[in-house]
From TrEMBL:
The chain crosses the membrane at residues 12-36, 42-64. It holds the Pfam family DUF2842. It comes from the Bacteria. This is DUF2842 domain-containing protein. Keywords: Membrane, Transmembrane, Transmembrane helix. InterPro entries: DUF2842 (IPR021265).
Amino acid sequence: MPVRLRKFIGTILIIVLVLLYALVANTIAVATLGNAPWWGHLLYFLLTGLLWVLPAMVIIKWMAGPPQR
């Protein structure tokens, strides 16, 4: 697969990942954190704010990999 195509697909995948992840994380927050204390909100959003990086790292690693011939 050409490098430009791999980077284009990876970019689209990261955009879709971030949008879906934000939607799911906020939906869960609205459904479960209504009466939680401030530190519960802080921990939840700290965790979910960092957790999306793991699948994004896999996509970026795939994008930056050596070109397959």
